[in-house]
Every structure is written in structure tokens, then in C-alpha cells.
Amino acid sequence: RGPNGGVSLARPATAITIFDIIAAIDGLKLFEECILGLPGCGNDKPCPFHEDWQVVREDLKNTFKNSTLADLSARIKDFGLRITEP
Question: Across residues 49-61, what is the average pLDDT?
Fold first, then answer.
């Protein structure tokens, strides 16, 4: 826990990817399921967006796997963003 009751990380922020965080919180549905939510959508029976979503999904997955919590923190600081309510 942090000094004000927050949390501490089990690994350095440089070793935690955004993909790790998404997988831990939301699971991998975003990267595994049909974007339209159609059952049975896949390479054998693709939905109308299957091929387009497959490309976007892989790009997104790679971006999240190559971005760390430390990277996100630096970007937030660089832009002066606040991620909590004042």
C-alpha cells in the first residue's frame, strides 16, 4: 500500500505492459471475440468486419504489448493529464 492507502506494484512499472493490465482487469475478450458479438464468427465463417477487425485487433494488441505502465505514466505527466477527480 502507498502512503495514502494506495497500492504498490509487485513488479516495476517498466515490466508491466498495458496488455497485462487489460488482461488482468477485463480479460482477453477484446482480442478473441467477434467485434459484432456474433457467435461462430471466425476464419471459417467470418462476419462482415472479421478481416478488418483482425488487422486492427493485432495492431492494438501489439501496441498494448509494447507499451508499459511506465510509458503511460510518462505520457500522462508530459500532457499534464489528471486521471482522477480533483
Answer: 95
Q: 62-76 burial, b if ≥16 CB within 10 A, otherwise e?
A: eebeeebbeebeeee
DSSP string across 9-36: -SS-GGG-BHHHHHHHHH-SHHHHS-TT
What average pLDDT does this structure show over 38-66? Answer: 95
Q: Cα–Cα distance between 20 and 12 in angstroms, integer?
A: 13
| CA 75 to mean position of chain CA atoms | 16
Cα torsion for 74, 76, 65, 30, to the nearest 10°?
Answer: 170
Q: What is the pTM of this model?
A: 0.76
